[in-house]
Amino acid sequence: MPESVTVHEGVTYAERESGELALDLYRPEVEDPPLVVYVHGGGWVAETRANIPDPERYAAEWGCAIASVSYRLQEVPDGADVEVDPSNPTPRGAFPDHFVDVKAAIRWLRAHADDYGYDATDVAVWGSSAGGHLALLAGVVDDVTDLGDAFADELTKTVAPDASGAVQAVVSWYGVSDFTAVDDEGGPVSLLFGGTREERPERYAQASPVTHVTPESPPTLLMHGREDEMVAVEQSRRFYDALDDAGVNALRYELHDLNHVWVEDLADIESERVAMDLLAAEPTHAQSVYEATHVPEGGTPTPLLADLPPAGPDAIRRFLERTVG
After folding, report:
1. Mind telling me which InterPro entries this protein's record contains (predicted)?
2. Which of 74, 62, 68, 73 is nearest to 28 (CA)?
3. What CATH code is carried by the domain that includes residue 248?
4. What is the pLDDT of residues 161-209, one digit of tens each?
5. Is 52 helix (H, G, I), strand (E, B) or coil?
6. Cα gap 74→207, rounded to integer Å
7. Whole-model pTM above 0.85?
């Protein structure tokens, strides 16, 4: 394990009308480590980039530079049935600002790789919950301007526009993949798209990662609790099936008795910062693993993980080594 990790906190990567957007970068003392971009959860309306599981530890153990990025959170109008923390300093906007910012951070990080000493040739993106949705979307939509006609007037590249925003691997914890299967009238999803699924069908479809899956989509590692009451496990199943149908390698872990953020009861949710500890707790949680490995004509099988370790940091490490390491 590397002896130390260099931390760069509060690095500004974008200036928006509502304020500055920053990232925290954790770089292990190894030569040219690959880059992992972390996107926090919080229902698109809450939390900050500090909501990341032990980044210094995993930067060291995985030998990866990890960047935890801020993105504009959804503006919540007075009277909306969605709670927000008024002390959260993160700038706010309206979807697709969240996606625009994640892509901007990826481009900025790729453009500044030499400045900070990591290798951004291949980039992995990892997200949880709302961040899982944004990570999946960043994986299957290479250029921010390709999200779709429903958002065309709101998609611009002002940050490192000449750099690529494409990613080569995705890790999603309990992220939404198909909004057309979500009923959320009055909740954060209808707030996100400015109306119900029936009122804004194009936005619901084009913001859904499953809509954009192609044979060129990156390999993906999905982890989801079967008892998730906030984002149904069916969301990860739909995305996995779409990748499999397109001939893209994928892995899906289902944790049998776990809810959102790897707790057994929603009342026990604390923070994503302790989520990895819960996921990797002993004894190992009962789980099922599904693997889609596609073999090129005349080739040999190259699975994403050779021996399918339990869900947790070791599985993520091995996936990253296989895809971007």
Report:
1. AB_hydrolase_fold, BD-FAE-like_dom, GDXG_lipolytic_enzyme
2. 62
3. 3.40.50.1820
4. 999 999 999 999 999 999 999 987 778 899 999 999 999 999 999 999 9
5. coil
6. 14
7. yes
